[in-house]
UniProtKB/TrEMBL annotation:
Parent-protein residues present: 6 to 341 of 842
Listed name of the protein: PMS1 homolog 1, mismatch repair system component
Family statement drawn from the similarity comment of this UniProt entry: Belongs to the DNA mismatch repair MutL/HexB family.
Extent of the signal sequence: none
Organism annotation: Oncorhynchus tshawytscha
Length: 336
């Protein structure tokens, strides 16, 4: 049973960036407005995430890391109205199977916080009082300690540096979609990146990518029954040499606030950009783009992959077409 557990866990949790993503989403689901992420040795020695969210109720702490335990959905019906990032109840248990995990938490009802140490199966093995304020801190030590081949693969190659870059890109996406969130990333006690609380998405883009990246952006807004598209796209006819990069990662696409990697959407975005800026195609430059597509959650299936970055849409008209029309009409009206 332990082997089966280890095998399934290391599919959900296959790198530092997965751990950070799962823990960050748990913090956001708990309503946190301030999240501090600290890594040591690229996260392979220590990943610590501290939030000021709701905390975990004492009644839930015994089962929080039990495989498939989730406090977020009660029935199959709830799946159709998902408003949380998590719902599978898989992450915490899976992380326990591949690392040493401790969770410190305090709700508004608790007089004092508690630090729980979990074992490989996600069971609480010890607990002690903690002076920590309201919220939750999850500490993950020695990631992949029981998967030496995988650990060596990252630690002994430059792969661990790539992981850090991926963590930064991931945090940028959440920083952009959550303007009200305060976020910091620390590596080996050095603050690598931080973003303060801001008031809207444009400010969030500026705080995350710098003023140059947003100077040339125009807001996009398109609404039709069951779909709303909001975001920013480069202004036609501008020199966007400052704003574009050779890195496609500066295109931030969200569906219902969830960062996604959706090929058909990226393709539409790329085509529109190239139509506006033929020169950038030759230079292989990519624009800064942010688009948040809001659809009824019952029409999206985010369950295709454990990390939920691939989605399936039930819409008869694919959003790539709607997006293409909305970008076109938005620009025509703004240029006119
Ligand atoms: P899921 O997010 O799919 O529910 P997880 O394994 O990620 O599953 O988390 C299990 C449960 O632990 C959550 O449903 C939630 O009740 C609790 N939990 C985990 N992290 C936090 C946190 N940072 N703040 C509050 N509750 C948390
Ligand atoms: Mg979760």
């Amino acid at each position: 049973a332990d082997t089966v557990r280890l095998l399934s866990s290391c599919q959900v949790i296959n790198s530092v960036v997965n751990v950070v993503k799962e823990l960050l989403e748990n913090s956001l689901d708990a309503g946190a407005l301030s999240i501090d992420i600290k890594l040591e040795n690229y996260g392979f020695d220590r990943i610590e995430i501290r939030d000021n969210g709701s905390g975990i109720k004492a009644a839930d702490t015994a089962v929080m890391a039990v495989q498939h335990y989730t406090s977020k959905i009660c029935s199959h019906d709830d799946l159709e109205h998902l408003v949380t990032y998590g719902f599978r109840g898989e992450a915490l248990g899976s992380i326990c199977a591949v690392a040493e995990v401790a969770v410190t938490t305090k709700t508004s009802e608790d007089d004092v916080g508690t630090r729980y140490t979990l074992d490989l199966t996600g069971s609480v093995v010890s607990q002690k009082p903690s002076h920590l304020g309201q919220g939750t801190t999850v500490c993950v030590l020695k990631l992949f300690k029981n998967l030496p081949v995988r650990r060596q693969y990252y630690v002994n190659t430059k792969k661990c540096k790539e992981e850090l870059k991926k963590v930064q890109d991931l945090l940028m996406a959440y920083a952009i979609i959550k303007p009200e969130l305060r976020l910091t990333l620390t590596h080996n006690k050095v603050v690598l990146w931080q973003k303060a609380k801001v008031s809207d998405h444009r400010m969030a883009l500026m705080a995350t990518l710098g003023p140059n990246a947003v100077a040339h952006l125009l807001p996009v807004h398109h609404q039709q029954p069951e779909i709303v598209i909001d975001g920013f796209f480069p202004r036609p006819g501008m020199d966007c040499s400052l704003a574009s990069s050779s890195n496609p990662d500066k295109t931030f696409i969200f569906v219902n606030d969830r960062p996604v990697h959706q090929k058909d959407i990226l393709k539409v975005v790329r085509q529109h950009f190239l139509a506006q800026y033929p020169a950038d195609s030759a230079l292989n430059r990519y624009p800064t783009v942010m688009l948040n597509i809001t659809v009824p959650s019952s029409t999206v299936d985010v369950n295709l992959t454990p990390d939920k970055t691939q989605i399936l849409l039930q819409n008869k008209v694919p959003f790539s077409i709607i997006l293409s029309i909305s970008l076109q009409t938005d620009f025509d009206s703004q240029v006119a």
